[in-house]
Amino acid sequence: MKFDNNIPYKIYLTENEMPKSWYNVRADMKTKPAPLLNPATGKPCTFEDLQPVFCDELVRQELNNDDREIPIPQEIRDFYKMYRPSPLVRAYCLEEKLGTPAKIYYKFEGNNTSGSHKLNSAIAQAYYAKMQGLKGVTTETGAGQWGTALSMACSYFGLDCKVFMVKCSYEQKPFRREVMRTYGAAVTPSPSETTNVGRAILKEHPGTSGSLGCAISEAVEEAVSHPGYRYVLGSVLNQVLLHQSVIGLETKAALDKYGITPDIIIGCAGGGSNLGGLISPFMGEKLRGEKNYQIIAVEPASCPSLTRGVFAYDFCDTGHVCPLAKMYTLGSDFIPSPNHAGGLRYHGMSAILSELYDEGLMEARSVEQTKVFEAAEEFARVEGILPAPESSHAIRAAIDEALKCKETGEKKTIVFGLTGTGYFDMVAYQKFHDGEMSDYVPTDAELQESFKKLPKIAGQK
Amino acid sequence: MKFDNNIPYKIYLTENEMPKSWYNVRADMKTKPAPLLNPATGKPCTFEDLQPVFCDELVRQELNNDDREIPIPQEIRDFYKMYRPSPLVRAYCLEEKLGTPAKIYYKFEGNNTSGSHKLNSAIAQAYYAKMQGLKGVTTETGAGQWGTALSMACSYFGLDCKVFMVKCSYEQKPFRREVMRTYGAAVTPSPSETTNVGRAILKEHPGTSGSLGCAISEAVEEAVSHPGYRYVLGSVLNQVLLHQSVIGLETKAALDKYGITPDIIIGCAGGGSNLGGLISPFMGEKLRGEKNYQIIAVEPASCPSLTRGVFAYDFCDTGHVCPLAKMYTLGSDFIPSPNHAGGLRYHGMSAILSELYDEGLMEARSVEQTKVFEAAEEFARVEGILPAPESSHAIRAAIDEALKCKETGEKKTIVFGLTGTGYFDMVAYQKFHDGEMSDYVPTDAELQESFKKLPKIAGQK
After folding, report:
1. I want to staple B341 with a disulfide (CB 3.0 to 4.6 A). Which of A54, A85, B202, B390 is the partner?
2. Which of chain A's residues have a Cβ under 8 Å away from the Cβ of B372?
3. Contact A161, A128 (CB under 8 A)
4. A329: closest CA among A359, A356, A360, A307?
């Protein structure tokens, strides 16, 4: 293998080089992302509308379209040191395997117990809850990555953490549940008898195995009905993309340190937290007209919100208890076919990314599941890291771009986000090995049917 | 939290500071570890005795008691860069939680897909197999850590990898099996119909769920009966401790870089590969009379080879196909009670460590399982990392030593080895959470019974 001796195989920033502020890309957007709407009034959500549900400071961050830099509190920076800076790795072995003239780098966010980038926002949200003097927070989790990250953050600050875990995952995927318990979280299978909405659902559908929409509804009810508790969410929201900008800031600092300018930046996209965080500072340069980059969002063909969705106001949750957001959406009732990238099975997309995509500032493409796992395995065998199914969407696109370079001879520099590890996703790998993986893609008719159920609000057909 | 701003929270060596040679502690031992004996002749194993089973260069390393430094081939150093240098972390949060004046550091070996330090030797063994022009290697695995590490290494060098996995683990712990398959290994549940010894065992015990001893026997048969294959082992052997010295060398370099001198060095001990690797360079200073350190091996109370075993020649495997080693042993037929630290359930101990312990150059203590998991959970909640059950034995002892300092006011510097993560051990954590964990310790009578079956060889009662 031919290493470039001037550039480390893994670029680690020093702890002193870690970002001291998050970067708020909204400050550089000419057209701001559309505001959240209060479903009761149809008007933009105010601080007062959101305050009963979210921590005060997080509401401020959610609504802040103006401040470009938001200082990262010292306590959060201290916690970041426990698993950050994360390495920017030159994929020498993958390049050699592909025989490409392209240079490939990946920012690896999986070296922490939550196994993903989710911890970057979890610790921030827990911190602001603690500073507000709250007792604890509630949330929902599907496969458990976000719940794990939040449990770790709450354990660190001594906050109560109540996680509603979709019942089928609670029963079929007990490992992440036990990780959460290790960090002291109370994990309740959803639907449960502990909330009104849970009891109502159980009465109507006895024996149901639950859904993320139902778990969100229970978590929100649990928060608003207990003094000293707030609800927290791990993706989609502006505040989450803000916290995740630490990924992009570190990536940019590492590249700048060695004089590397990427041509293409690639990230997987579900709710948008990882992609939004990774691209933020690069997009800022693009918005300010300083640089140009090709930016690619990669989503599952089974849940193609950017590539086949519509840009419209929609509910953020299937339970319709949350505000409306203007975003690329497949409709809040859309149920994607089974896909093992649980973190990408969301019907919508961050309002920030939706606006940027609509303006043509980034591209999107969708990839089929089997192709994703082929890329995952190829990557694992040469680079060592066993990637999460979500992250592997970005790997697929990076490999495809590198192979294009092999054809054209172009020496492009590709950077992609490797959001996490797949240690808790081995059932998916097993199905791949055994040839039992589905590549179902929704038909146009199915999507049109789903679009019909979009909420009727002013200015939207 | 009060950080010392002169010392990073995590000390990462640069890639240029990584060791270029392994350190062979045997070179500094006045009394060398006793040689392996050929069970057929009762005489010390020669190169020719071992050559049919192990790769040539590895046999040379096994028998080399003289060379202090053995260069690490460039290809292995390149691979090490994929997950090394590993961080030496100052446990500020744990210190604060304990309220101890002690300073605690841990060397974390879990940031790779195998989840442990095993990869350090796996890549070396695969490399020498490749250099010898072999087609592949065979091995056994219990819970799957070693098998995973070896699959990764073989995948990197394009070698065949045949893993015999104890059948009950193969069926009950499918996740590591799938990790191995992802890296292209052929994983066979043992006992199997593919070997003579497997068929014989199945005939005698239909429906048996297998044992490590049986899996070793199958792996050895598979290797010696196929041209171009050799057998490899992940612990106990001198060669393995040599490769694992990279842990201690990096630890020492990181400490030296910041002028830190440890008082106490702690590691968990099963076969001895991690402990031997961690302490090697420090033990070297001690053997040469340059420095003095308190060195502590920590083993499970359920499998107390150092603390309650005898120092005698014994079989390395329950199947009695391997050479005899002089070591602290509980007897090769000893079956420890259920313990979730699968990597520490070995009846014997590395010949090197056994000799050092016998000379009083290191201490040993045993800890009970529930106490180990209490330490694991306490550590996880403040330090973030979810530790493997094996590693948590060292955490237990480190916490105990730090609490002693709290009583005495001594400001000792404690370094311990955190060998890996517990992501694939959540069933153990679940039993701990549910209060279903056994703390059974063997009785003296049980041990005496086991000692009676030690092989009768010259000079041994």
Report:
1. B390
2. none
3. no
4. A307
Rounded to 10°, the helix B238-257/B351-358 angle is 60
Question: In terms of DSSP H, where are the helices of A258-386?
Answer: 273-287, 305-308, 351-358, 369-383
- Planar angle of CA A240, A245, A251, nearest 5 degrees: 150
- How many Å apart are CA A422 and CA B342, to the nearest integer? 22
Dump pLDDT digits (tens) for B75-91.
999 999 999 999 999 99
Rounded Cα distance, A247 and A23, in Å: 10
Which candidate from B10, B93, B175 shows the least CB-CB separation from A426?
B175
**Spacing of C-alpha B2 from chain mean position:** 34
Residues of B with Cβ-Cβ distance to A1 under 8 angstroms:
75, 78
* Residue A122 near residue A149 (C-beta atoms within 8 A): yes
When the pLDDT of each residue in chain B is averaged and rounded to a whole number, the result is: 94
Helices B351-358, B273-287: inter-axial angle, 10-degree rounding: 50
Helix runs in B174-237, H state only: 174-182, 196-204, 212-224
Cα dist. A98→A93, A296, B66, B315 in Å? 9, 20, 43, 47
Model confidence at B461: pLDDT above 60: no
d(C-alpha B401, C-alpha B33), whole Å: 30
The strands making up B229-231's β-sheet, listed across from edge to edge, are B186-190, B160-166, B136-141, B229-231
The band of B460, judged by pLDDT with boundaries at 50, 70 and 90, is low
Residue A210, helix vs strand vs coil: coil
User: 10 Å Cβ neighbour count for A456?
Assistant: 8
Q: If chain A, 461 residues long, is cut into consecutive pieces of 10 residues, what is the mean pLDDT of each piece?
A: 77 94 98 94 94 96 98 96 95 96 98 95 98 97 91 96 91 89 96 93 87 87 96 95 98 97 97 97 98 97 96 86 92 81 87 98 97 97 95 98 98 98 93 92 95 80 55
Closest by alpha carbon to A17, among A227, A362, A258? A258
For chain B, domain boundaries: 10-20+73-115+238-451
Q: Is A359 on the interface with B (CB under 8 A)?
A: no
Cα separation, A393 vs A416, in Å, equals 10
- Contact in structure between B161 and B182 (CB atoms under 8 Å): no
The shortest CB-CB distance from A78 to any of B1, B178, B182 is to B1
CA A452 from centre of chain: 27
B10 touching A (Cβ < 8 Å): yes
Contact A90, A7 (CB under 8 A): yes
Identify the architecture of domain A10-20+73-115+238-451 in CATH: 3-Layer(aba) Sandwich (3.40)
Residue with the larger pLDDT of the pair B65 and B341: B65
Q: How many CB atoms lie within 10 A of CB A11?
A: 21
Q: In what order do the strands lie in the sheet with A10-11?
A: A10-11, A88-90, A103-108, A413-418, A264-268, A294-300, A363-367
Residues of B with Cβ-Cβ distance to A93 under 8 angstroms? 82, 156
Question: Could you report the predicted ipTM of this complex, rounded to two decimals?
Answer: 0.91
Distances (CA, A) of A8 to A88, A257, B252, B381: 9, 11, 22, 33
The set of residues, in sequence order, having a beta carbon less than 8 Å from that of A408 and lying 6+ positions away, is none
Instruction: Write the CB contacts of B113 (distance below 8 Å, at least 6 apart in sequence).
Output: A380, A384, A385, A386, A421, A423, B148, B152, B179
Cβ(B432)–Cβ(B370) below 8 Å: yes
CB-based contacts of A352, cutoff 8 Å, min separation 6:
A25, A26, A29, A33, A238, A241, A272, A276
A-chain CB neighbours of B383 within 8 Å are 82
Is any Cβ of chain A less than 8 angstroms from the Cβ of B77? no
